Amino acid sequence: MTEEDFARLKRRFLRYVRDYRMETPAERQNIALKRAHTLRVCRNMGFITRGEGISGADARLARAAALLHDAGRFPQYARWRTFNDAASANHGLLGVEAIGKAKLLEGISRGERSLIIRAVKYHNALALPRLDKRSLLFLKLVRDADKLDIWNVFIEYFGQEKKDRPTAAGQGLPEGKGISPASLRGILENRVVRLAEVKSLNDYKLLLLSWVFGLNFGTTFRLLRKRRLLERLAATLPRGQAAGRVIAHLEKFVSLRSS
Ligand SMILES: [Fe+2]
């Protein structure tokens, strides 16, 4: 992918987003949220590729995949007014569909197009699918860059007054008091907490924290540490024994991988 290819793609993408015109301020806020998230994921991608020694055409390709990874969020919100896939449709698949319909990748070589499409399609999959090595590389890059920003988004979200929180960012979960045993077990077993194990907003925070078990690159672990994302997210959990165990366990996991 050339610089020119990327610049053209970015212009197209921004025009694509602009075409999702919303009527109310709350709706516009939700669209703006995803646009800003996308641009930050692109920036994260720059950090990760540099840290991993990926440069030139491949770095641009990775940035292009980051740019399009959430293309499905816009039609999802326009149609269902939610970012909850379970209540609407899988936004990875919606993205693939939307990219084709809006012809965002026109003029890009077939090989590069397929790498981008796969990264979009599976960026939100629970586990990595079986793909060839090169498809997996770009998919892993997108998943890491995306998670780094989502953590940030939620840290800000949980730090906001309830009335100021963007309406579509929460999952409609009850606040809850403690942490459910199932989600605690997930963390201690070094696995991503399943949505079925999430009973409250606190469990959802554990689910977010458990994403560290799905990270792929040393650079991502280092960025996570540098930005103190785990500590800041964990700080929003209710104080107690369970929270203490979660934090200690995760810190050990991350420190082993970020040195
Ligand atoms: Fe996404």
Tell me, what is the CATH class of the largest domain? Mainly Alpha
Low-pLDDT stretches = none
Count of spatially separate domains? 2
What order do the SSEs take from the amino end to the carboxyl end, as H and E?
HHHHHHHHHHHH
As a whole number of angstroms, the C-alpha radius of gyration is 18 Å
- What's the β-strand tally? 0
Distance between the termini: 32 Å
Largest sheet report: none
Average pLDDT level: 93
Number of helices: 12
Helix content: 55-70%
Beta content comes to under 5%
Principal-axes geometry comes out as globular
CATH architecture of the largest domain: Orthogonal Bundle
User: Structural class, from helix and strand content?
Assistant: mainly alpha
Corresponding CATH superfamily of the largest domain: Hypothetical protein af1432
CATH topology of the largest domain: Hypothetical protein af1432
* Ligands bound, unique: fe (ii) ion
Concise description?
The protein has 259 residues and is mainly alpha-helical. The protein has 12 helices and no strands. It has 2 domains: 3-148, Hypothetical protein af1432 (Orthogonal Bundle); 172-257, no CATH class.
